[in-house]
User: What shape does this take?
Amino acid sequence: MRVLKYDRINEMVANEISCEICGFRLFNCVASLSSSTLAFVDDSRYPGRCILGLNSHSECVDSLSVDEYASYFDDLRRAVRAIRRATECDRINIYLLGNNEPHLHFHIVPRFGEFTHKSPPTHFNDAREQTPIPPQERRSLVNQIQKELKNWT
Assistant: This one.
């Protein structure tokens, strides 16, 4: 996967990146981390929803070396913390499925107090229409996620 470097944190990176082996694509990339790229999903049902795609091609976690695994999961921890702080969500759901895309990627989905027995268990089961976040709110949220990523210690 072509890795993008981000010199600016005050705007959404409009680039798309894709894996040369399987064609997996990420859009709206907002950060390049140690071994992965964080992409923002414009979904008003779950503000702050992102996908964290591994920069190198791999289809399953057991094919990663110990160092690759540690780096990718550290990126995940960093992304989750940044999204949690930026969105002030109640919970975060993390999915690593591998059913449709032959490339390791996490879905990181903030959840906001909608937990009842009638709540959809995942964003995949949510019947609400997926609509974009208003542009100013989206820019602010992306900027906040990027700021939290830069503040990681």
User: Anything to note?
Assistant: Residues 5 and 84 are 23 Å apart (CA to CA).
